[in-house]
Amino acid sequence: MNTTSDRPPRTRIVVVGNGMVGSRFVDDLLSRDGAGPGPDARFEITVLGAEAYEPYNRVLLSEVVAGKVEVASLALPALVHPRARVHRGMAAVRIDRAARAVHVEDGAAHGYDVLVLATGSSARIPAITGLIVAPDAPAAPSLPGASAGTTGTAAPVLPGWTAALPRGVHALRTLDDAREIVAACVNARRAVVIGAGVLGLEAACGLARRGLEVTVIHGGPSLMDRQLDADAGAVAAATLTALGVAQRLAARTTEILVTDGLVTGLLLTQPDGEHHLPVDLLVLTCGTVPEARIAADAGLPVDRGIVVDDSLCSPGDPRIFAIGDCAQPREGGTGLIAQGWDQSRRLADHLTASAARAAAESGAGRVRLGGAQLNPGRPSMALRLSMNVITRAPGAAGGGADPGAAADLGPAVAPAQQTPAQLPPAQPAPEAPRGTDVVRLKAAGLDVVTMGVCGARRVPDSSHRTVRLSDPAAGRHVEVVVAGGFVIGATCVGAPQIGADLTAAYTRRTPVPADPAYLLLQPVASATTTASDPTHMPDRTTVCRCNSVTKAGIVESWRGGARSVAEVAKATRATTGCGGCKDVVCGLVDWLAATDPAQEEDAPAETREVAAGNLTGARGPL
Amino acid sequence: MTSTHCPYCALQCAMSLGPVPDAVPAPASHLAVGGGPGMPDGAGETAAAAMAANSAAAAEDRPRGVLAEATIPGGPARVVVHGRDFPTNKGGLCQKGWTSASVLGAGDRLTTPLVRGADGELRAASWDDALDLIAERATTIAAEHGQDAVAVFGGGGLTNEKAYALGKFARTVLRTANIDYNGRFCMASAAAGANRAFGLDRGLPFPLADLGGAQAVILLGSNLAETMPPALQHLAGARERGGLIVVDPRRSATATLTADGAGVHLQPVPGTDLVVLLALLHVVWAEGLSDAGYLESRTTGADAVRRSVAAWWPERAEQVCGIDAGELRRVARLLAAASPAGGGSGAYILTGRGVEQSTQGTATVTAAINLALALGLPGRVGSGYGAVTGQGNGQGGREHGQKADQLPGYRKIDDPAAREHVARVWGVDPASIPGPGLPAVELLRRLAAPAGAGTPAGPRMLFVHGSNLVVSAPNSTRVTANLQALDFLVVCDFVPSETALLADVILPVTQWAEEEGTMTSLEGRVIRRRKALAAPPGVRSELDIFADLAARLGSPVHFGTDPAKVFDELARASAGGPADYSGLSHARLDAESEPGLFWPCPAPPAQPARPDQALAQDRPAISGQADQAALHPGTPRTFLDSFPTPDGRARMIAVDHVGPSDDLRPDAPLYLITGRVLQHYQSGAQTRRVSELAAAQPGPFVEIHPVLALTLGIDEGAPVRLATARGAIVAGARLTTAVRPDTVFMPFHWSGPGSVNRITTDATDPISGMPEFKLCAVDVSLAGAVVPARDADRISAPAPSTRSDTLEVPR
Predict the structure, then answer these.
(1) Engineered SS bond to B114: which of A400, A587, B122, B266, CB 3.0-4.6 Å?
(2) Transmembrane region positions (chain B) (predicted)?
(3) Would the CB atoms of B800 and A393 count as touching at under 8 Å?
(4) How many CB atoms lie within 10 A of CB A34?
């Protein structure tokens, strides 16, 4: 088995999508694969990416709009690997499951043993009168992901919507979108953002930062109402107002006003009536729609996104997997990159382990995939390990595989030929995702972090203990939910470090007190008070750390006759290490000279001189 | 008065040792903790008067002559320690330094060889008997099990001369590949990172005093205020400018120096320092703060690194490292503003053990170097990257051939030219020099191990020099068991350390003030250690022991016993290597008006120190009397013109965060981090014997955040049980908000039931072989509480890590 001719054929993996999740998955998988060209190099990968660009960091597009980052810094690692071929600007148009091939727009077909769909999502375009113009409208920018319009049942997406928006109207989903918005800012004065979710607020703050008059229109009763309840939303709203972003809440946009193909204003309905807003630049941030058409066309189960089981495999075909925004796992898609990267890691682990096991058992290099049930109840460390964790061999405990759903995905053997007796032993369950639902707003001046149980839509539960500190005048609203000795949810507006600390406790499941108050009161009160007044300095306070000298030690040396910093140093060695405590020792000597009734003569001037002369600008540690 | 340096850390504070003037009575216990009565009038008049008279003098004329003394049993006199002006410590000493003379008078000082008898007891023996026994056992074990069955474990506290002689002894007399040293525990990751990025590893490639002019200094995983207190003087400038940045999961003594506007303390989740660095790099590039001209002209690989950090925007990093994204941005901008390209007066990035003693230590150092390169710092006067070396001779100790993969001069042992050169100096056949041996942790793991699938049997005999493995090695319970399983253990020490007490033969050796030699400080400055008093009768230097054993083992190889001559040989062996000492000698170091000289310091080109010539005749003496103009001045600052890489550019290498090897899980839900206290050095074998230090820090303790203590029902001072996958220990609780609520901290200087290294992990960095001392998952409970599910045996082992998704490209 060690000659080249005996090398088992490699598993051909086709990845549709070269975005943040697709490219990460390829990287994850190849980093787990053997270096090759030996038999441990088990995968050959073809990537089909619709966008012409190299993979880039889509999460930072709102930062581009805000002018905070350079576009070049969005570029993600370019894939250069002998066993991977990347086709950019090449959209997949059809899956032929019978022939196990993906057809692309230029007519070519790419055969696969395993197909991974990472097609992402596209911007959701709400059905508003005036928004859609004729496909041949002059100078209309093309909208990426336009084909998604036919997908799903979401009513606001116009069926049959084709390819164009009026000039001055932009989604914010691609690098081109971001560039066009930035370009439009040059001549625009009044900007409106429709949708006050995370992206909408980031875009609104970014446009305000560029000096535009910005109004954000939101249908919900408060800002970010998927994450924030009304009170938290109100605190965020006040901060947003201070940043120069006006808000129209519980507002429905009824018509976009377009003149000569160019947006000029809009009409909206609020509880108090109809309003007209003049608009130079309109940004649509109304959510996203999973790109699932290619899967639906192939007859795979599609709901909101491509339905996958706990091993990220389509129930309709054991060779087809979906990860990232296009997928709909049992717990639902969050649209957060953390979830997509966690799925990428898990799928890479799964495929690698399956290939290794199959090779070890059969020597034939077959990859058996699909069907292994992840145990969603098991806590995951996914997020704290940064969505990019090392592969760890799963522990002995775990869920069992469902033999009926497993399939041999080796190139030479059809699934039907596989009998249960040949199946690999039950695969220990990889960890299910947990903690990948932390939402963190990226907007200078408005800090919002939420996780787990939060917002108005949560179900009341008597086992949850919740404490909130709401301080609207200071722009601060903090809430934490504890159950079973763990943080299970939190909302932090205007308190970024508390948010970061609670994120760490939440994602890592570290033990916390049953009383959530301690989690909020401690950090709020943690501004350390330093005893600068010697009278109030405790005797055991260390004054000179280098030589373990306490205040009591210095007092004692004074009582023993030391009357200057130099004499105190002689007696205690205080100040003879780094010298950083000299100011404090000097202060103590002055204090003793002024307050100690036992001493007969005073020498504060001299001690001052000693301190100044011997210390080069070092500060005291206290 | 003898001018020498402190025996402890790599700062090597300058001090003078002298006899106590006759007129001075022995002071009372006035230096005990908490102070005491002042020194009697007239006591220590010279020193005290000097200090008082100095009051208005320049800062470098620090108070000196605070007395600390030791009575040497059988010795000539009590000795007194004086702080001495020097660029590094400016006369200051910490409590360890002031009391260092006490170790010279340790009550249990070893003064005779001890040999374990048939009854298992150690008994006094003559040197002849002890050395004969060692020679006989070494011969027999090598004959039965092969030469690699006799192994050597060195130390970063040995002088350059001893470290050199030890490596030579292992390679030419024992002919074993298996020699490594405890520097693998402290410097290996920084060395690996610097070598592959810069082509050279000198801890600080600039004088320490250069830090003084910087606008910003970022310290990652370094608690300088407790490990090298006098060095804080060099941070005063950065603090005045608000530019001291300390990255530490604990609000350490060093971190508190950032208060009051002096800087920023970032307190990340343990094990995520790398994420902090990746986020800082991200911001530097995203906000256009990098030094594009420098990257273009002096580096390679920047584009790949830039792409790799595109995925580490601050809000994502925040979710992993627990530091507010705004703080990360603020620090990145602060560093950039301090950099030369940002118009600042300079910035330094320094790493310490806190980030290096990690399974991703080399990656973290690499990220720190990448950040320094992106900001255009290395190789510029007033800016740079450096690793703060820890052990006294941690720098020199890694240059002269006691490392498993190296020969003197920081040469690679698998480089044919290096072997050829060194073999000529040693007078042996190059082919007779063994190849690379096992790195320290692996060496200790394999001690006495039977042959396994694909692995040969482990060593059966071990020489230990300058290391107290029972306390200082990770997962030390296993190390102790392995030491006990050896056929024969030889320990050279001057006190009966915990490791020495396991030995079959203990050889009593000289200590710092009893010997001549050189040390290389954290700056790469070669300095002189001088003899201030005679060693007690019955004590020998390791140099004598190597020469004697070589003779008893029938080796024709010459081993000098005069440290100055051994240094000359070392200098020849190092000639042409990265760490070139060939332009140095004891005589030159003694004569230089400059305090010490920085390597590389090659011999003058007119007098090439070719090894064959050097062997044929004594090298022309390089001394202070020689023509100064002909002498190389040493190299205070490296990389100013180019980097010693093939293309002269620094190499940027993309790395990514992987996480710790032993991470949180339900039955070990908290982090245990380890570190040091000011009063103790390393395993405490020396400092625990100084009564003043032992009184100040008598034993181990656990720092616990009050909120965690509340959660776990632990009060101040209560006994706390810490259980990891490797076992359980108990120590008293100290409640403090200085630690994160998800983390407990313990110092590691003690043996016994509170010895934290019994439960630390010995997982190692895949590139450097350095163990992950600093971090593991732990279960914490009140000792004695009945918590059946938390039995130590049930703490699960962390899943083995494949480390497959690192982006790192090992060279």
Answers:
(1) B122
(2) none
(3) yes
(4) 17
**B617 in contact with A at a CB cutoff of 8 Å?**
no
Determine contact: B679 vs chain A, CB below 8 A: yes
C-alpha dihedral sign at B368, B371, B373, B378: negative
User: Higher pLDDT residue, A242 or A373?
Assistant: A242
Domains, in order of start, for chain B? 1-105 (no CATH), 114-181+396-520+525-598+601-630 (3.40.50.740), 188-391 (3.40.228.10), 670-794 (2.40.40.20)
Q: What is the pLDDT of residues B354-397, one digit of tens each?
A: 999 999 999 999 999 999 999 999 999 999 999 999 999 999 99
Q: What is the band of A255 on the pLDDT scale with cuts at 50, 70, 90? A: very high
Q: Does A589 touch chain B (CB under 8 A)?
A: no
* Tens-place pLDDT, residues A264-297: 999 999 999 999 999 999 999 999 999 999 999 9
Answer yes or no: are the C-beta atoms of A323 and A21 closer than 8 Å. Answer: yes
Rounded Cα–Cα distance for residues A339 and A330 (Å): 13
Across B412-416, average pLDDT = 96
Strand B78-83 with B14-19, pairing: antiparallel
How far is the alpha carbon of A273 from chain B, nearest alpha carbon, in Å? 39
- CB-based contact, A278 to chain B, within 8 Å: no
Residue A252: strand, helix, or coil: strand
List the domains of chain A with CATH numbers: 4-120+291-422 (3.50.50.60), 122-288 (3.50.50.60), 447-524 (3.30.390.30), 534-614 (1.10.10.1100)
What would the mean pLDDT of B165-180 be, rounded to a whole number?
A: 97
Residue of B nearest to A515 (CA): B711
Minimal CA separation from B112 to chain A, in Å: 34
Proportion of chain B above pLDDT 90, given as a percent: 81
The DSSP secondary structure of A83-98, one letter per residue, reads TEEEEET--EEEEETT
B270 at interface of A, judged by CB pairs closer than 8 A:
no
**Cα distance from A384 to chain B (closest Cα, Å)?**
5
Distance CA A227, CA A440 (A): 10
Nearest to B250 by CA among B225, B272, B270, B276: B270
Over residues A28-42, mean pLDDT: 79
pLDDT at B515: 95
Predicted confidence at residue B540, as pLDDT, reads 97
Query: What H or E segment, with its residue span, contains residue A290?
Result: strand A288-290
- The residue-averaged pLDDT of B628-635 equals 81
Best of A541, A573, A583, A592 to disrupt the B interface by mutation (most B CBs within 10 Å)?
A573
Backbone angles phi, psi at B743, to 5 degrees: -145, 145
Which residues of B are less than 8 Å from A598 in CB distance?
none
pTM score of the predicted model: 0.86
**Residue of chain B nearest A614, judged by CA positions:** B59
Instruction: Spell out the residues 6+ positions from residue B602 whose beta carbon is closer than 8 angstroms to its own.
Output: B575, B576, B580, B582, B583, B609, B632
Cβ neighbour number for residue B337 with a 10 Å cutoff: 16
Residues 217-256 of B with CB under 8 A from A: 225-226, 229-233, 236-237, 239-240, 253, 256
Confidence at residue B454, expressed as pLDDT on a 0 to 100 scale: 82
Using a CB–CB cutoff of 8 Å, tell me whether B663 touches chain A: yes
Q: B669 vs A511: CB contact, 8 Å cut-off?
A: yes
The H-assigned helical ranges of B508-557 are: 542-552
Work out the end-to-end distance of chain B between its first and last CA atoms, rounded to an integer number of angstroms. 49
Whole-number pLDDT of residue A362: 60
In chain A, residues with a C-beta closer than 8 Å to the C-beta of B673 are none
Cβ contact A74–B310 (<8 Å): yes
Is A522 within 8 Å of B707 when comparing Cβ atoms? Answer: yes
CA distance, residue B623 to nearest chain A CA (Å): 34
Residue A492 has pLDDT above 90, yes or no: yes
Q: What CA–CA distance (Å, rounded) separates B626 from B633?
A: 13
